[in-house]
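Reply to dn_fold:

You asked what the input looked like. This is it:
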Amino acid sequence: MAAEHHLLAIVSEYEQLEAQLAYSAGDYLNAADAAEYQRLALEAKALLDSELGALNDFSSGLLLAANGVTGPMGTPKASVVRMKKLVEGAINHIRRRPGLVESQIPANTPTFVSSSRLAELRTLPNGKWDFSRLIRLCEELNVAYANGCLMATAMLVRGLTDHVPPIFGCKNFSDVANNYAGAQSFRGSMKHLDGSLRNIADAHLHVHIRKSETLPTPAQVPFQADLDVLLSEIVRVSK
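and this is what came back:
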């Protein structure tokens, strides 16, 4: 996700250059603007080579610009728009990739967070909030649950609920459950997460070693529906 953040900054710089060129005379970049255009292409190509490998299609598309190759008249203004769109396409491609390889989830095993919900989270724009940690929590939650790591599952769901309250303008998750101005059904699901989930997660996080123990079964972590309600509201308010 760090690469995505830097690529979004490059897109923003391309947009600034594009806006500046709209008021300049002629159809080609001057020397200073051409140098800026090449710098951005070089930075974007380096990021994409690192993220996707040196032979990826997006880096190949940036190659001529990164090397400063232009036509007989120089670099046309339209190239700025093309490069911006190319980097935007690369960002979309990165967002569509699964963050954790699917081989870590056994075949035909249900996931805790649905793939469609994860796809929605990955396409949310990073504006006021950076969703990379939230997405990673969901990915690790799926891997833990699919591999029978039930204590880790409870801990990760609790960690996720502790992570998201600022999205709703709240200080903590109890505030979300009790005071967020959502539908009554939403608050009911959040109170279930805040009460039952927190107690179960606390038991796995804080109980000291004892003479005898019992391990959890999947029946202890049936929070998929409530968590999906929470994630769907995050998607709704963040679009």
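The mean pLDDT is 88.
Hope that clears it up.
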